Amino acid sequence: MKAVILAAGRGSRFGGNKDTQKVLTEVLGQPLLERSLATLREIGITDFVVITGFKAEAVEAFIRERRLNKLYNITIVRNDEWQEGSARSVLAARDFVGPRFLVAMGDHLFDPESLRGLQRVRGAFIGVFDSDPKYVDIEEATKTLSHRGHAKKVGKGLEEFKYVDAGLFICTQEIFPVIDKCLAQGKGEWNDVKREWLKEHEIHIYDLRGAFWLDIDTQRDRREAERLLLERLGRPRDGIISKYLNRPISTRLSRYLVTTPLTPNQISFSAFLFGALAAFLFATGQHAFLIAGGVLAQVSSLLDGCDGEVARLRGEGSSYGAWFDAVLDRMADALLIFGMTYGLYTTLKTPWPWWLGFLALGGSLLVSYSESRYEGAFRIPFLWDGFGLPVKRDARLLMIMLAGLFNQVALVLLIIGVLSLAEVVRRLVVGYYAQVPFFNAACRRFRILKGEESAHQTLIPYDREEGEHLR
Length: 471
Description:
2 domains; 50% helix
């Protein structure tokens, strides 16, 4: 299915630089047009038709200069009659789309997770609507009155309504004669087309049910979008250290990093390098170097959150990126524990530190492995009961920092090893009882109440230990 992205309008309410096309305005370092492309690619769209009009040369130059055709298969169609309205822009795509296509407003932001099932909906005209809008100005939005899952009436001035129009549609070729009819009557807006369509047909409703989406109409909307995007970077499955210490710092770093050319994978590798350097400093066994190593371990922990945050902010998530990050994390963990153990051994000149290192390394790896293997076997996320000992990577790296600051390497290795093995045993016990239907259902209700799972959730791959969805 192709997606038609409307990038032709002036956006008179947006203000700012009058010589700038609104879809080229950056939100956290990424232009709106590029965000739209990334979001739609995440839900399986591979071919795009970008309709230009106002400042067409600037939009077309942007696509060339950013080499977006290397990432997306883009056909550029210029609409010289863009002033007639958005319906004219949709009509301009007639010769470039197949029997069924998607229409997207170039200045809207969406959470791709909320759109996963959109392409499976059947119908000649499907609209994405929201029955519980949380992030948009309802006064300025197009409202919809419905009956049995279909739009009945649309318009900005409706006093009685159930849904708000989110600006995303799936259409068939049947829409083009309706557009022709509207234009012949001097009606050039997309809402005019919807009203004309509803005289003889239905618009099927795809309900977002309060999911994140925004219509960037003003500079205030842009600032609010940046605030909300950063606020949403936290994950329900974050460990206690990530939630209250790392995220508040890493999101500030990510706000800067997202404006740089650094890729998420490069940030992942940088986090690994900091961890490896910390391991080398711990291996010296000298307290001054232990302090520096502990600080670098925590820096590595912060950067380990930034790679996923930058990927989500840019819409650059990939299975490879999540796997690459997870492998580097395990390598850094192993190096850190080896460095701590070797430094302790050279200082004390006794073999027992190797036993502590083996205990800590085995426990750390089993925490991650027990989670990933459970998902692989049962195809559901782990930690059904919402409890667990503080042994996820964020907590372990904080302990390692404290080990360096206070020269308590042996104690921290022991704590990491014992707590990790205790958590693995707890998981084995809970995993056994999770096979009991009543217990499993009760745990799922608990996760839904905590916001860790939706009532209609399907399995979404995630970084097993960090609990992060694929970047």
